[in-house]
Task: structure prediction
Amino acid sequence: MCFNLNETNMDEENQDRDVQLKIVVRKNEYYVSKKFICSSVPYFEKMFCGDLLESTENKVVLDFDEHVFDSILNWIHTGSFLVQMEDVIALYEAADYLMIDERLFEPCMDYFHNNFTIEHLPIVLSQVKKASKLINAEAIDYFICRHFLKIINTDVFLDYPVATIEHILKLDLMVYSEYQVFESIMKWVNKNADSRKGLLPQLLNCVRWFFMDPVELSKVKDNELIKTLRDFDSIISSKGDCRSNRTKQTFRISIHRIDDLKLLINVYDDDFFCLPIGDFTQDDSMSLEFVHREHISDILFDTGRQGIRVDWSKKTFRWLDFKVAGKTYYTQLSKTIVQFLKPSSSLICHLEEKDTTLPGQINNDEAAIFESVDSYIVIGKTKDYRKLFGLFPVLHRSWFKHFKDNKHTFHATVLDKVVYILTENLEFIQFNYETRSCNKSNPFKGKHLYFHYLLLTSHQAKDNKVILVDKSTGKIHIFCINEQQWIERYVMMNIKFCSDSSNNCSYQLIAFASTFLQMKNIKPLYKKSFVHFDLHVPYSSNFFKNF
Result:
């Protein structure tokens, strides 16, 4: 991409009379007007135009990529430069080192965020460092961790070099099972088994075997390629990386409105133990770029129709954009990841009938797009608004455009291969999109529940619960999947303790959702630890172990 930012032209006559500065950049030598470059680049001005010893010198040695330095010289002399993903990070770093006008920074930043996709991960990972300024290593690693389960379901992943694969597998990936990490390795190896099977032991060392379920471990041992490995038992018996359990990063979150500019956020573990995080202030200056810092999270709720971006470090938030065409959270998601998901025939079907044929057109006037384990799905109404339909998975980019802000008539969530739906008349539907089976019931008949006060949510996998929360009362209804029954177990009180001796402060519950979180980036209002009295050794539960 070419940018034209600078209208400064050098006076050629003055250049001829000017002293030439020799700049050595690795294997290349450049000769430029010393007077002109000192007037254009603050770094050279400070070096050569003062009383320092260097001011009498006419040579300088720099350690930049030659192509990057070419681009900078072109910009200085012509006002334009070429940029590509292969060198945009290095170009930004060089411009910062040379203290060049910030007009060069913004185009580099815009180019990266407008063009970065998972296709560029090997290039970017080879360049970024912890202190990189355009985008740092921790931000890229967090992006990988959060979207790992989608990345491994693309052909792009299968073409990554082994160095990229190994880097990815060593991260604190947000997964539901270590078996998913193993599966990703086998996908990559099997793409070209003859040349890659020799790399299998190296990659298997990245699996945290200590945390793998015994049933899934037995499945691993039954794999034909694994059976050919002589030292597999030594691989799984070694301690490896047991620092943290990657499968324990799913939490439930409640969001309460304090006033127009403040929210209260709490985090819950699977036993509904509450960890209060505190008050968050709205900050609309927060960037909405899809790739962001590791201490920032996007929390989606209301069947994927709403969401907020939370900065856990600054205790600020911003509402995600779901309306501006081309700039919404979902359009960024589609451009960066979804377009690379493996093409397959999507299942489009009624969710209430055995006949899966859809007469007439479907539309997105009332549709919800949300995340399943390895893909994204759409639940919506047919054009006549009479029948629920599902799209499993959704791949076409048109579905990721902004949705109309219509009054919706259903809540939905997905757990494993089953979509759970609560309709406006409180009918509860379970649709298994793998077996195409449907089960309908009316568990709330006769109960005083108002549809628009309800929230339906669940984890995406490895759970036995679907949660229904009544915002008006705080009551939590739990659907136990194995038992196929509802229980009312908890009441979430929307009241905060007021330390100024005034009356208790009631806060409005606006969301209750499941999400991935790296707890090491979150500052709770208090900490808790447990003591194992039998061993007389203190230890922290999984919920607090990263604090």
Summary: The longest helix spans residues 137-151. The mean pLDDT is 86. Residues 250-343+410-520 form one domain. The radius of gyration is 28 Å.
